[in-house]
Target: Tryptophan 2,3-dioxygenase
Amino acid sequence: MSDTGIKIKEKYEQLGENPETYLEGLLHAKPINYWDYVQVDTLLSLQKPRTDFKDETIFIMYHQVTELLLKMMRHELEQIVDEEKITETFLLTKLGRVNRYTTMLITSFDIMKDGMDYDDYNQFRKALAPASGFQSAQFRYIEILCTSLGNLVNDEGKKRLPSEATVEDYFEQIYWKDAGLNRKTGKKTLTMEQFEEKYLESLMAWAKKVQGRTVEDRVLELKNPSVELTEKLREFDRLYNIEWPLVHLRTAEHYLNSKGENKAATGGSEWKKYLHPKYQQRKFFPLLWTENEKKHWGETADLK
Model:
């Protein structure tokens, strides 16, 4: 018996299974092919436009690609959170991948900005309310993986936090609630209500699970991190929390206000304010930025 055959035999014997059963199953199994392995037919059947405008299909596929990129990011970030003994080499590898994925998110926005007919978009978008990219749960999971909840509360929100804030308190003041909650009246948009009904409980559970083990926490476990690692972390913070929101904002500006109409977002948010990083004030690694950089977060990259 070959070395491989011996290893296969040992593997299934250790599991208390009969190796011959599995080998016979392999004998009868069909060879794998590309379309079944990647689930191509299923993937290409997932576009379900609500109107007859051709570019709505582009809109759907773009957001599906974005969700896949976010899943790739989660895949790497979860490994950082779960790694038993963190090392700088491990972090550099994972952060290098995450930064490449984030760069793809940024550059791919050209598909949205230049890849759809302006008038058609402004018609079919009306059929999508109250759905909004705001409702992407993966975006929120990534934030929670990366940093402590206190870093997801802007300056105004911090003023409203109790001295001994709980996870629930942080979620009451978290920056993204400003997109769909009138803090004076307590009234929420339907977009916000839908999102919280589906995801809020799981997001809070996720935050409790990773508390003390976020990417920010794991980095702090290292003594004297290198300049290379520090720059990789700053690059991720800048790409994800400044450049990506800004290219999103510029695309929204193109479709919603390039002719001075100042149209409302499908989710009902004050998109000009909500999308800008200087209002979100989201920073994953605040200790890596100077006080002046934090004070002027995103301000040097205003819309032209």
